[in-house]
Design a protein that fits this description.
Layout lengths: L10 H7 L5 H18 L1 H8 L6 H16 L1 H10 L13 H15 L1 H8 L4 H18 L1 H8 L4 H18 L1 H10 L2 H18 L1 H7 L7 H17 L1 H11 L2 H16 L3 H10 L4 H13 L5 H8 L5 H18 L1 H8 L7 H15 L16
Length: about 375
């Protein structure tokens, strides 16, 4: 609301004011400011966004494109077609597909046929992104109209469109989306159902968990089961843990257990420790231990570090032990210094930093957290 009342001449000054804000607030405000700026002066907003440094440039460019696309998508589409590389969200023209999808999605609100005609003029990758943007938007408004338009496309484009329709429709009316998917040929159903369930997981992971039984066994299903379990654990870690460990394949459990256990460890650490004790050495146990180490920051470091030492993978073990040692240095510096003299599970550089941190803590200095994890997929 604040930016909506600004005169266009004031936008540049507002950019400078944002530099004093915390990072998260600055990124959000940057996006809103450049979006509003683009509604009044699209080219000026875009040109200014290209002058921004890292990481502000990403939010500034996204804001400029969203504002321009919302106010005049056809004009932006024409500019994009002249030089797609200029409109990448990242450096070097990377992220062009994101821009194409945003333009096409906004244009679809006004003229979906025109947006589709433009999308089909783009290079293959950007065309797929643009088509996804169109049908994602159109299916939110009118799924049946989206299906009608999708039927006019060639096989490849129709497949992309169907996946976008499934993603949106699964959120608004999963039962209707499921009936439509059931009407497709067996060949068409595969990717479309995966897309629907993956999208449903963001809104109702417990329902998505039930729907995974409709998918054929294999690597893709295992990955989706792991993803659903991770989403579910954010809302209900005990249920997600029970479902994954009882219903998931070995590969699905290996992929998903780390994040699920990390969430459960904050609620029921004893249940997690019992599970870890029941597992033989291997990837599943390693991932569960890492989930416990990274998730249960309230556990006694002296105990947790011994558990972390049992991780069989050397790199994972070193990261986990190092993480706990940093925490331990803050809570009990003397014990940490003694531990550092006996362990070989911590690299020399980290050992020196932890030792320095522990010595400062022992001297009464306030020390902050020195390490944050976990590894991405864990």
């Amino acid at each position: 609301e604040y930016y909506s009342d600004l005169d266009p001449s004031e936008f540049e000054g507002e950019v400078q004011k944002l530099q004093g804000l915390p990072m998260s607030q600055r990124m959000l405000a940057m996006n809103l400011l450049f979006s509003r700026w683009a509604e009044n002066d699209p080219k000026g907003s875009w040109e200014r966004s290209q002058q921004m440094g890292f990481p502000e440039m990403f939010m500034a460019r996204a804001g400029a494109v969203s504002g321009w696309a919302a106010s005049n998508p056809e004009a932006l589409a024409q500019e994009y077609s002249k030089d797609p590389n200029e409109f990448g969200m990242g450096p070097g023209g990377r992220g062009r597909g994101d821009t194409a999808a945003m333009i096409a999605g906004e244009w679809a609100k006004q003229n979906p046929e025109g947006a589709l005609k433009w999308a089909q003029t783009l290079d293959e990758r950007e065309a797929a992104d643009a088509i996804s943007g169109i049908f994602n938007e159109l299916s939110q408004q009118d799924p049946q109209e989206a299906l009608r338009m999708a039927a006019t496309l060639n096989d490849n484009d129709r497949g992309d469109a169907y996946e976008s329709i499934a993603e949106s429709w699964a959120i608004s009316d999963y039962a209707a989306a499921d009936r439509w998917i059931n009407s497709l040929s067996s060949e068409e159903q595969g990717k479309v159902r995966f897309a629907a369930i993956e999208s449903l997981a963001n809104a109702s992971p417990s329902q998505a968990a039930q729907e995974t039984t409709k998918l054929p066994a294999g690597e893709e299903r295992d990955e989706l089961v792991a993803e659903v379990s991770r989403e579910w654990a954010r809302q209900d870690a005990p249920s997600a843990f029970e479902w994954l460990t009882e219903s998931g394949s070995d590969n699905a459990v290996e992929e998903g257990i780390g994040r699920v256990v990390g969430a459960l460890a904050r609620e029921d650490p004893e249940r997690v420790l019992d599970y870890i004790d029941s597992r033989d050495a291997g990837e599943v146990r390693d991932n569960a231990v890492q989930g416990y180490v990274y998730g249960n920051r309230g556990a006694p470091p002296a105990e947790t570090i011994r558990l972390a030492e049992t991780i069989s993978g050397e790199d994972d073990r070193q990261r986990a032990v190092t993480r706990v040692a940093y925490e331990w240095a803050r809570e009990d510096p003397e014990a940490t210094l003694q531990y550092l003299e006996t362990t070989d599970a911590i690299g020399e550089d980290s050992r020196e930093r932890i030792s320095e941190m522990a010595e400062r803590a022992a001297a009464g200095e306030e020390v902050g957290r020195g390490f944050r994890g976990p590894p991405g997929r864990r």
